[in-house]
Amino acid sequence: MASPLWIRKPLDVILRDSETSGEGHQLQRTLGSTQLVMLGIGAIIGAGLFSITGMAAANNAGPAVTISFVIAGIACAFAGLCYAEFASMIPVAGSAYTYSYATMGEMMAWIIGWDLVLEYAVGAATVAISWSRYLVKFFENMGVYLPQEFMMSPFVSHTMADGSTVHGIINLPAVFIVIMMTLLLIKGTKESATVNAIIVGLKVAVVLIFIGLGWAYINQANYTPYIPENTGTIGEYGWSGIMRAAGIIFFAYIGFDAVSTAAQEAKNPQKDMPIGIMGSLLICTVLYILFAHVMTGLAHYTEFKGQDGIAPVAVAIAHTPFVWLKQGVILAILAGYSSVIMVMLMGQSRVFFSMAKDGLLPKVFSDVHQKNHTPYKSNLIVGAFVCLFAAFVPADIVGEMTSIGTLFAFILVCIGVIVMRKIQPNAERGFRTPLVPLIPILGIISCFAMMALLPGDTWIRLVVWMAIGMIIYFAYSIKHSKLGHSIRS
User: Fold this and answer.
1) Which residues contact 358 (CB under 8 A, 6 or more apart)?
2) Which residues contact 210 (CB under 8 A, 6 or more apart)?
3) Cβ neighbours of 34 (radius 10 Å)
4) Reduced to 3 states, what is the DSSP secondary structure of residue 97?
5) Is the peptide bond preceding residue 63 cis, with omega within 30 degrees of 0?
6) Which H or E element spans position 440?
7) CA angle (260 as vertex; 258, 262 as ends), nearest 5
């Protein structure tokens, strides 16, 4: 008898289950290609663009941070092409989890499903914490000072202007934004997509304004040397610095794969999903490269050292007469983070929805609201978990975990395309990844190269997180697996 650890879920079973989920388990198809592109842009463009760009230029790549964006974008494109094939071939909720179940078996599917918690739930908490920080800054610029102890986790302290130290109690703004986005998701996918489209329009407008107004004030001398000489330490300038920066700014690309979690809610997934994934990725890559070019042209990269938050962009804006743009950028960050949180919460609930339908998680995660057609119980549970993280955990602990978890997911999806071409060569594919196996192999290599240059403690946290996941799998999931029951009976 075959081991349930490696049994694959047949493609026809996955497709049949998605269409015959039964009452209380059916998502509604309401999203078109434009909404899916907006969903992708909503997930991708957050404050990472405004803050990480300056830090990566200052500490790793100099003006060549634009090359880092190209490298990270190409790596994402390799993975994106693989995601596009799977999303058109297996148009169901669950993203990389579902794809792994079809190609590499149940245990690998569980591993990737558990790994995606790092990208979506933990990532949403990280973003919510930063949203809170920018809200405080937005009000401070208007002369309104919010009580700091309710803006931070208990493990964070803040030195006030008078030299006194305030210790955090709870991060209330972070909890507030998670609750609001959770309620919006429960209301309905179509409504969430509409709000997301409005937010996307706002933040893209601010990015375009920064590029358009800043271009005239670029100082060409700031691009010399374009690739600063390596200091003798791996990751500090030179080509190793460009690669290290690519791994760091990869965080700014996280999100395009969240489009694939909405496959079961797309009107025409075979056509719309590839457009949503690749369209959002292409638009964001072009905006990122132009933004980084203008930013490092306005100010010398060394001016960004020691800066965080909005400070790198503020330094660049100071070289233009448009000081008012600083507040506009903060507004774009707040809007951008809101949509990122919403899409990440949506992605996490859809992954849990699929895992629960397969029996690997309790049934409560797959219950769908009869009127709104959303997995509302999963939304509430995920929202509560993210609220706890956002309220009480410092952001720096989980930020890099989000990147390494996502890169790991991308690698498994790239492997999955190669496997599926072998075991299901004649399966219907609305989109085919070109040059297989070359494109998936390049995706694997580029993603692993960025993983390899992440700090060692990030790898330790990944291993610990995966060990916790395996304990849960063997204690609960393997015993309740519907596919496992079918082969044992």
Assistant:
1) 9, 101, 109, 481, 482, 483
2) 291, 294, 313, 317, 325, 329
3) 14
4) helix
5) no
6) helix 438-452
7) 85
Q: Which fold has domain 11-488?
A: Amino acid/polyamine transporter I (1.20.1740)
Q: To which residue do tokens 């790198």 refer?
A: 312
- How confident is the model over 123-158, as pLDDT tens digits? 888 888 888 888 888 888 888 888 888 887 787 776
- Establish whether the linkage from the previous residue to 91 is cis, with ω within 30° of 0: no
Contact (Cβ atoms closer than 8 angstroms) between residue 257 and residue 177: no
Instruction: Specify the 3-state DSSP secondary structure of 249.
Output: helix
Please name the residues in contact with 5: beta carbons below 8 A apart, sequence gap of 6 or more.
105, 106, 107, 478
Q: Which of 363, 416, 350 is nearest to 8 (CA)?
A: 416
The answer to whether residues 280 and 34 touch, using CB atoms and an 8 Å cutoff, is no
- Three-state SS string over 11-77 comes to HHHHHHHHHCCCCCCCCCCCECHHHHHHHHHHHHCCCHHHHHHHHHHHHHHHHHHHHHHHHHHHHHH
The closest of 413, 414, 406, 412 to 458, measured between CA atoms, is: 406
Phi-psi region of 191 (alpha: psi -120 to 50; beta: other; left: phi over 0): alpha
Q: Which of 403, 399, 375 is nearest to 389 (CA)?
A: 399
H or E segment and range at residue 157: strand 157-159
CA torsion angle for 130, 132, 136, 139 (degrees, to 10)? 110
pLDDT per residue as tens digits for the range 265-280: 788 888 888 898 889 9
Residues 301 and 319 sit within 8 Å (Cβ to Cβ):
no
Token readout for 123 is 């990532």
- Which one-letter amino acid corresponds to residue 329? V
Query: Residue 1 has what pLDDT?
Result: 45
Say how far apart CA 6 and CA 110 lie, in whole Å.
11
Place of tokens 């304990």: 471
Instruction: Say whether 165 sits in a helix, a strand or coil.
Output: strand
Residue type (1 letter), 393: V
Nearby residues of 473 by Cβ (< 8 Å), 6 or more positions away: 107, 110, 114, 360
Which of 247-261, 283-297, 465-479 shows the lowest per-residue confidence on average (mean pLDDT)? 247-261
How many other CB atoms are there within 10 angstroms of residue 205's CB atom? 13
Pick from 261, 266, 480: nearest CA to 364? 480
User: How far are the Cα atoms of 132, 229, 328, 335 from residue 332, in angstroms, in the given order?
Assistant: 14, 34, 6, 5
CA distances 464 to 18, 202, 227, 236, 471, Å, are 33, 39, 37, 29, 11
The answer to whether the pTM exceeds 0.85 is no
Domains of the chain, residue spans:
11-488
| Element spanning 416, H or E | helix 399-423
